[in-house]
Design goal:
Layout: E1 5-13, E2 16-21, E3 24-29, E4 41-45, E5 48-53, H1 55-68
Antiparallel strand pairs: 1-2, 1-4, 2-3, 4-5
């Protein structure tokens, strides 16, 4: 089973995005997504932003992860 993490885009530069996932900032590839901007929310898997999501999706994902842990 694979788990994707939701994150907020902080910065974008040359196909790489800095994202904030629960306070942890890291660089991920953003080459799969077009029109990505700081403030957008994304689903990240294996160091790659694979889909744009809504802020509500992000909050729901965070809540579910807290319940599981």
């Amino acid at each position: 089973m694979c788990v994707g993490l939701s994150a907020k885009v902080v910065r974008i530069s040359d196909g790489t995005a800095v994202v904030d996932a629960g306070g942890a900032k890291r660089e991920v590839s953003s080459e799969l997504l077009e029109d990505l901007e700081p403030g957008d929310y994304v689903m990240v898997h294996a160091g790659v932003a694979i889909a744009k999501i809504t802020e509500e999706d992000d909050e729901e994902t965070d809540q579910l992860m807290e319940e599981l842990l």
